[in-house]
Design a protein that fits this description.
Blueprint (H helix, E strand, L loop, with lengths): L6 E5 L3 H13 L3 E5 L2 H11 L3 E5 L7 H10 L8 E6 L3 H9 L4 E5 L3 H16 L14 H12 L4 E8 L1 H8 L1 H22 L5 E6 L2 E6 L1 H18 L9 H4 L7 E7 L9 H9 L2
Parallel strand pairs: 1-2, 1-3, 3-4, 4-5
Antiparallel strand pairs: 6-8, 6-9, 7-8
Length: about 280
């Protein structure tokens, strides 16, 4: 059951899907509102003040992208998490959804248990003020920005950027729970390897859901870098089911790890936002 009486707004034009989601989330303890048209979704977002919105992309009037744009442009609704419902084959929909401010997406036909977990994680992230990632438990948002600001304004820090590549493709093939297991395992390996370096000071956090930043003194970074690169690369095959491991090694979108040294940032940046953009290539 939901821990609090959170309000969910469902914008879905298929009456069967809308009714099923309404009944399912009510049983889970949520207060649920459903509308079938995009314009009604915008109005309901402003009047109901939901804690989260489940938004179909294909609607009979304006599409879900336009609904999201309007919600994000309104100060009353700009912070409400949005989970898009989209067709699995249409990757461009997912990318466009993130561009207009979606927090997550789920593909049709979807597993309602997976959707429940995504709703729970999004609400947990909001309730924690986006201080920790709901999957890995590592710092994100303001906590990470605070440490990056320290690196910008104080010498003596080395930064390492670690990225999980193709996690979206893995999620599509094996599901939400399996991809979360990958995230948790990799987070734990990085954390344990940091502990083994015996660095006098260190920090590990997220700069995106699939990107980690490690901070530690420069004299500790060399040993850590080589050790974590080796460990992570050797672990990747084991995330795949045994029957798929040989085939996975030949996939163009196979899980991969990218470990990148960050050039010295002390005195180079005037804001954390600039540093984030450089790290994430945006």
């Amino acid at each position: 059951m939901a821990e609090a009486k959170y309000k969910i707004l469902i914008v879905e034009d298929d009456p069967d899907v809308a009714e099923m989601l309404n009944a399912y989330f009510r049983v889970q303890g949520y207060e649920v509102f459903t509308v079938n048209w995009g314009e009604d979704g915008v109005r309901a977002g402003q009047t109901v003040s939901p804690d989260i919105i489940i938004l179909d992309i294909r609607l009979p009037d304006i599409d879900g992208f336009e609904v999201a744009r309007r919600l994000r442009a309104d100060r009353r609704t700009r912070e409400i998490p949005i989970i898009f419902l989209t067709e699995k084959r249409e990757r461009v929909d997912r990318l466009q959804g993130f561009e207009v401010g979606a927090d997550d997406y789920i593909t049709k036909p979807f597993d309602v248990q997976e959707l429940r977990l995504r709703v729970r994680n999004a609400l947990k992230r909001i309730s924690q003020g986006s201080l920790t990632n709901p999957v890995s438990g590592l710092p994100e948002g303001p906590l990470v920005d605070e440490r990056l600001s320290e690196a910008i304004h104080k010498s003596g820090w080395a930064l390492l950027h670690i990225s999980i590549i193709h996690l979206d493709a893995f999620r599509e093939a094996y599901g939400f729970v399996a991809s979360d297991d990958v995230m948790r395992a990799i987070s734990l390996m990085i954390h344990n390897t940091i502990k083994e370096t015996n660095a006098s000071e260190d920090f590990l956090g997220h700069i995106s859901p699939t990107d980690f930043i490690v901070m530690m003194p420069p004299d500790s970074m060399n040993a850590f870098r080589e050790k974590i690169r080796s460990r992570l690369e050797q672990s990747l095959d084991y995330f795949y089911p045994i029957k798929d491991r040989e085939r996975a090694s030949k996939m163009p979108d196979r899980l991969a790890i990218k470990v990148t040294d960050v050039p010295p940032v002390f005195g180079k940046y005037s804001s954390v936002e600039q540093l984030r953009k450089d790290l994430l290539g945006k």
